Amino acid sequence: MERANPINVTIKADKPPTIYMTDQRPAHCDFLLRGAKWEINEYEDCLLSTQEFTFLDNHLQLVEMSVYHEVALDLNIQKPSIFMVIMLEGFYRYYREDRLNFYAVGGATYMLYCPEITLELRVNKGKHSLLVIDIGKQLLQDVGKPDTKLTSLINSLFDYSQKLSTVPMCRNDRQITTFLNTLRMLKVDSFVREAELAILLADLLKGYSAKLENDSFIKSQLSPELANKIFVYVQENFNNDGRLSITAIARTMGISEWKMKEYAQLLFGKSLHKQVRDLRMRVVVSLLKKTNMPVRSIAESVGYTTPTYFYRAFRSCFGISPQRYRESSRETDPD
Fold it and tell me: Name one Pfam family in it (predicted).
């Protein structure tokens, strides 16, 4: 029996979206559940695409959003559930009854228990992607052990608690990469694949639990409001070197430079310099794959004014030249 998706997503908009299904990967989508169709919702302020499937009593949904202006979404949780959320990129703020509950950043994974509630999700301009896994009770019972930091979360589900519960974010690691690569390469209609995914998910849960026990989670005194302000500033100015120094951002945020360095590492899991480089390279790669823009024009569009510096930065990230990357990506893209 097909497991129903426990989350109903509604974007708050004046006009209803144009909705359609497709077998071909849309140009704005950077991730892939191979073999699953895309549902596309086109709104005035954003483009929302989802892929989903069920494997052995677990439901998985890949959500990608291209947001043109800040939007708010209602997440209606239709049954008590425990979710593992793998943040691929972006920044999300979760509200309940107009109160900011928590935030999540790209490059991190977290878990939460949700009763039958409605959460409001607010998303800023930019690209935001996440993988949401509704974990079945059987797997939770198989993996769960007494006296761990996940125990109370699991107990909330079996006790039908009415309280929303979250556990800390942990940085994405090699296990996450392996799981994502499996989703990309294998077809969804294979029973062998379902069994393999269940094993990988069980390993993810064990690895996540071990990180919590070892205190290897993201620790912060950074308020959600300031976290959002920093994230938005970097997103909007990543192609403007003059506004991206630690000094300039710290002055804008009204904090010290050493605090700004600490918060950048917390939010992005890397230095501000590397975060800006990665934001630029993400746009560069997308334009190389999807357009015929000259490489030099692409470099200038993301803030590189010196071609030599751009080529050196690109090669340090990908090991090949931009032109060779463009050629090879078009040769090997499975869709």
Answer: HTH_18
